[in-house]
Amino acid sequence: MNASLLVKSRLASFFKRGALVVSLLVVAQVQAQNIKLGYNGDLSASPTAQSGKAAVLGIQAAIEDINASGGVLGRKLTLVVRDDLAQPAKSIQNMTELIDNEKVVAVLGPTNSGNAMAWRRIPNEKKIISMQSNAQASDITKPLSPDADNYFFRVSMYDHAQAAGLVAYAKKSRTTKIGLLTETTGYGEGGLRDLQDLAKLNDIKPLAIEKFAVSDTDMTSQLNKMKALGVDTVLVWAQGTPMGLVLRSMEKLNYFPTFLASAAADNITFFDAAGKTLASRAIFMRPIVNPDTPVQKKLFERLGAKLAAPSAFIFSIQGYDSTLLLAAAMQQAKSTDGPKMREALENLATPVQGVMKTYNKPFSKTQREALTPADAKWVRWVDGKLSEYSDPVIKSLTATDMNR
Q1: Same CATH topology for 31-157+291-371 and 160-286+377-402?
Q2: pTM of the model
Q3: Could you read off the pLDDT of 5-53 as tens digits, one per residue?
Q4: For domain 160-286+377-402, which CATH number applies: 3.30.750.24, 3.30.70.330, 3.30.870.10, 3.40.50.2300?
Q5: In whole angstroms, how far apart are CA 120 and each of 83, 110, 143, 391?
Q6: By C-alpha distance, which of 183, 190, 225, 193 is closest to 208?
Q7: Residue span of the signal peptide, if any (predicted)?
Q8: Residue 192, helix vs strand vs coil
Q9: Could you tell me which of 64, 73, 58, 119 has the C-alpha nearest to residue 92?
């Protein structure tokens, strides 16, 4: 190759490399301008993984819609997802990575209440919003101290509201033979505290309080004790699979007290573990039964085929609406700064049209729950599908009963 051609070849190679560097810099600049949200929850390891996957689908759908409408503050939203494998240590690691390394402005999730409790200090210390789209333990959204700024908010039916409904049902049914049966996870222990507090408030003294490990497959020992004491109404707080196995254990004993369950009974893992006939014995509460409104049906058409089961759609809705509320806070604050977003969420000036409902000032300095007992519906499995349920006891319940 002569000198002239060699020079031309080197110049061409130089300009190609230069163009590549410029292109990479442009991409990096665009990415730096994007607003990052994080999701940290179980996507693969426990019965709650299907709810985590459903929530991510809802969040991604909301981001697509927001970006199609111009984004937030003239910038696009993106989602960084981390699977915590239902392990507290992994969930803590994910939170630190998302906030410190990925520089997310808010984190949604987790699926497991125990994991949220494990890293509860992190968002508050780093002043980053934690939007609870799945986990339901009542203590998650409480401030670390009475006067502390609180960076936790929730769009999910929290445990205390559910427990109030179940205890009110038991009281109005005029039974005095109540038993409490819970798993030993953070979710189960939190639910037990709510049930015990509300039972005391309603002058109810449970005849039996029994526990089981989330990995247990046979609960006949605990149930035999309840049967011997004459318990005729059992309030059960557990994840889907073990709760279904409680019913299987009842079948072994031919012992079928009234079965009042936490919202995890809506999980397809509960239905699969219990089977069609036994699953229908559980009475529980959730914010929606099935897609009902036009906007809910439209979102279900987009996401339904990707869900583990139609019952998981509730978590997609909660993920979608959580993202809308975060976007509204950024717009109002004109900032992605954590303290400014927190202040905006505490006093949203404009109602947010969500998929679940319209959120009109859902939060305040002290109120962290976007869903209230008024949003709850009584539900049962009927022929393999979730169906709204009512009976004379439910018809007798008042707003005061549900808000204790």
Answers
A1: yes
A2: 0.87
A3: 554 566 466 556 655 544 444 444 445 589 999 999 999 998 789 999 9
A4: 3.40.50.2300
A5: 17, 11, 9, 39
A6: 225
A7: 1-32
A8: helix
A9: 119
Identity (one letter) of the amino acid at 170? Answer: A
Dist. CA 141–CA 362, nearest whole Å = 14
Separation CA 49–CA 392 (nearest Å): 36
User: Domain locations in the chain?
Assistant: 31-157+291-371, 160-286+377-402
Return d(Cα 348, Cα 329) in angstroms, integer. Answer: 7
Class of domain 31-157+291-371: alpha beta
Three-state secondary structure of 331-388: HHHCCCCHHHHHHHHHCCCCCEECCCCEECCCCCCCCCECCCHHHCEEEEEECCEEEE
**Hey, what are 31's tokens?**
């990415």
Percent of the chain with pLDDT over 90: 84
pLDDT digits (tens, 9 = 90+) for 136-193: 889 999 999 988 999 999 999 999 999 999 999 999 998 989 999 999 998 899 999 9
Angle formed at CA 100 by CA 96 and CA 106, multiple of 5 degrees: 80
